[in-house]
Amino acid sequence: MSETSVSAAQGAALQCINLGIDFGGLTAVDSFDVTIGRTEIAGLIGPNGAGKTTVFNLLTKVYNPTRGQILLDGVDTAKMDTTAVSKAGIARTFQNIRLFGNLSVEDNVRIGLHNQVKCDMWSDMFHLPRHFKTEREFHKRSLELLDVFNMADVADAQAGSLPYGAQRRLEIVRALATNPKLLLLDEPAAGMNPSETAELMENIGRIRDDFGVAILLIEHDMNLVMGICENICVLNFGRIIAKGTPAEIQANPEVIEAYLGKPDVEEDAS
Amino acid sequence: MDFLTNLINGISLGSVYAIIALGYTMVYGIAKMLNFAHGDVLMIGSYVCFIVMGTYGLDPLICVLLSMACTTVLGIVVERLAYKPLREATSLAVLITAIGVSYFLQNMALLIWGADPKAFRSVVRLPSVVLFDGQLVISAVTIATVLAAIIVMVCLTLFTQKTKMGKAMRAVSEDKGAAQLMGINVNTTISMVFAIGSGLAALAGVLLCSAYPTLMPTTGSMPGIKAFTAAVLGGIGSIPGAALGGVLLGIIEIFAKAYVGTQFSDAIVFAVLIIVLLIRPAGLLGKEIQEKV
Amino acid sequence: MSKKTKSQLITYALVVCLFALAFGLSATGMMSNSMVGLLVPICAYITMAISLNLVVGISGELSLGHAGFMSVGAFTGLATSAALKYYGVITAGPARLAVAMVAAGLFAAVAGILIGLPVLRLRGDYLAIVTLAFGEIIKNLMNNLYLGMDASGLHVSMTDAKSLGMTGGTIIINGPQGAAGIDKLSSLVSGFVLVMFALFVVQNLIDSRSGRAIMAVRDNRIAAESVGVNVMKYRLMAFVVSAALAGMAGALYAMNYSSIVPKKFDFNTSILVLVFVVLGGMGNIRGGILAAALLVWLPEQLRFIGDYRMLIYAIVLISVMLLTNNARVKAFMEGFRERRGMRQAGAAEGGDGK
């Protein structure tokens, strides 16, 4: 994540300038300045309650910022609501999985594709030719997307009946279906074992390469974060305490203090 | 003077709505269900009082207490039989069941007492209060109704704030599971809420019928709906909200009848509710709940 | 053929069979008079159930004022039919019925938009109570509606018949007395057409991009928003389509009788239709149709029970709710579905997973 500068900002997928939000008397996020490149994989880490999901909610306009700017591919999202921001190119997954449990796996993906086609209520109600054409295209595209994650064979299963790991993957597929410029992943590895996590790391890399999308992820699994993120931003009490490459972050004493607390006086300061 | 008369009548009618609304709001707050049969419990209470007064000629106060006792028992029985098995069900399932109970009570009343309107004899046999040289006449029923509502409000507030059972009710309304873990008997608490609400419904019923003396199996239906909207207006789950909503609704209804016309009074009452909910969805005194994302 | 399409075809077939049966029985005189009189109302109520299912089952919003749209449609329909005849625009019965039903649907749709826009922003329970309030408001307004026609055109008043200011002519809608002298244009055939039309529209909608959006909003509003689905638009879509169909059902219903009053379309009617939907299974169109047909037909058959009829209806209702929502039954069904789903997904994942 580079410092905010005009040349660096050009072509950036996301640029946050002095982003902040107050809830009544509580400042949840403050002075959030970040730039994410077009196809960058960036990480957002910090202790519990640091404000990471709040940042995601700000980016997706679930909350409206109290101050600051969000530029998505150079476009100010100030007047946009969640729906508009999604159309503009931000997709997200949630900390607690939010799938459409009663619908099939494929239908979940098809909803991700919803905005790729203009609304046509009449052809939907009367099953005019346009409806069939749209559904055929959606079907094809859904299976393609599911295939990327080896989920094409469960296309007809009820989304709510999938095992946990599969549900998480489905959420990512659905997010990708919206054709985003920026993908926000909220703790994608939560509840996964090491082999699943390794597979997820591979998938994230592949998503970036195949879909040309910028990715910002919140994670607690440090192996994943350090392993895949090109740049990391560390949040504590709503403020950025460090920004940089994995190596820089790991050596940063403030970060260590935030996670582990101050070292004891007796300990060797190596 | 007309204005004052209307205002007083409005407060009186509103007091009836407030008492009914308190039952609705407590049950919603604690058992998380809309008890659509509440208005019909009111009707049953009124009939009991009517029958006891007519057949045995007992003192009106005894009759009122008897009818309250009956509805209290009725409330507990209905809760145990029809609502308790559905505690984990969807709110819609409980709602439909409540509607079934409502139909059941109405038709039972129809079978037992017939469809013909009964002339309800007022339980308040005191003379009216005459003020301003006869320009303002306030009936004893009106005064009794307002007093009753105030007493009920105060007692309920004290009950929920100071007594152990009251605190248990508040705990269950916040978090049923946690309350259970703390050793609170949720079943008893919920039954208690229904008991209190149903008993109060009878009180509201006899006061309502004393002021508007026609009693039929459908008598409880409309006041029930209106009291429910009063509870929502004030903020469902809030005791002061139910009282405020009830009184406000009563005033609005009487004023609408007086200054616009009886034919549109219902529409106006409901229109006010809609406007309030659009501006402040949680109701006047209710809490806005933020959904966690 | 997909499972969904097959299921929908079965529903069409079911309706066709039911109508064939009803038509056959009534035509050959094997049906009692009272039962024959019920046929058109059953069609109207089935349409109401289908349309309400779109709002309650598919869109997931509890609407307690559906009878209001039926009322709007009923009076629009009969007024349209009467006016068409009076002014000699169309005299043929079936054509008038068709135009009347279209008009009814349109007016009810407009009512749906006007009501839906403010109401659909509210949360579940509040939305329910506001729809109930609107149902009562519509009933109240209809009770005060006076409509007349004379040589100079249509006259409307909300106060009384005199203020219509007509010279000669006839009063179509007379406030609380409703409408009288209605041309009974409805028939079993037109009822069948309406039911099939409603079924066509609703089933198509469900199995479409719009339907998916509506269900997504129902299942998880926040996720739907995050994926760019306009929540208000799709809630409104379900609500307005449903209102239009209810209006058409109202027109069919009204023109089955020689007279009708606004009080007929009250809260009890709304609840009646809601019961059809819930008993049939929320979102289960076929179930709703069967429940509507059964619950209108059954009380007639049980007439011999006489006064106890509604009481038994209530007991049956409570019993069915208790039985189908029993905690143990539900846990069993959950476990069944989970095991079946996991077997499906597990087989697909091969050696993956835990």
Give your account of this protein's structure.
The complex is a heterotrimer of chains A (270), B (293) and C (354). Chain A is of the alpha/beta class. Helix content of chain A is 39%, strand content 22%. Chain A has 11 helices and 10 strands. Chain A has helices spanning 6-9, 52-59, 82-88, 105-112, 121-126, 129-148, 164-177, 194-211, 222-228, 246-251, 253-260, and strands at residues 14-23, 26-36, 41-45, 67-72, 75-76, 90-92, 182-186, 214-218, 231-236, 239-244. In chain A, a hairpin with a 2-residue loop joins strand 9 (231-236) and strand 10 (239-244). The longest helix of chain A is centred in the middle third of the chain and has 20 residues, at 129-148. With 293 residues, chain B is mainly alpha-helical. Chain B is built from 11 helices and 4 strands. In chain B, the strands form 2 sheets. In chain B, strands 1-4 form a two-stranded antiparallel sheet. Chain B has a two-stranded antiparallel ribbon with strand order 2-3. Chain C is mainly alpha-helical. Chain C has a single domain (3-304), classed as ABC transporter involved in vitamin B12 uptake, BtuC (Orthogonal Bundle). Chain C has 13 helices and 3 strands. Chain C has helices at residues 3-27, 33-58, 66-86, 93-119, 124-143, 188-206, 209-219, 221-226, 231-254, 267-280, 285-301, 309-324, 327-349, and strands at 146-150, 153-157, 170-174. Chain C has a 3-stranded antiparallel β-sheet, with helices on one face. In chain C, strand 1 and strand 2 (153-157) form a beta hairpin. Chain C is globular and about 75 Å long. The chains are: A alpha/beta (270), B mainly alpha (293), C mainly alpha (354). Chains in contact: A-C, B-C.
Features:
heterotrimer; A: 270 residues; Rossmann fold; 6-stranded mixed sheet; 4-stranded antiparallel sheet; 10 strands; globular; disordered C terminus; C: 354 residues; ABC transporter involved in vitamin B12 uptake, BtuC; 3-stranded antiparallel sheet; 4% strand
Estimate nothing, just give the exact number of structural domains of chain A: 2
CATH topology of chain C: ABC transporter involved in vitamin B12 uptake, BtuC
Most extensive interface between two protein chains, with residue counts: A-C, 50 and 40 residues
End-to-end distance of chain A, in Å? 28 Å
Tell me how many strands of chain A there are.
10
Q: CATH-wise, what's the superfamily of the largest domain in chain A?
A: P-loop containing nucleotide triphosphate hydrolases
How far apart the termini of chain C lie comes to 34 Å
What's the CATH topology name of the largest domain in chain A? Rossmann fold
Structural class of chain A: alpha/beta
Shape of chain A: globular
Per DSSP, the total helix count of chain A is 11
Strand content of chain C: under 5%
Strand order of the largest sheet of chain A: 6-7-8-3-9-10
Largest sheet of chain C: 3 strands, antiparallel
Mean pLDDT of chain A: 88
Number of domains of chain C: 1
> According to CATH, what is the class of the largest domain in chain A?
Alpha Beta
Oligomer: heterotrimer
Number of helices of chain C: 13
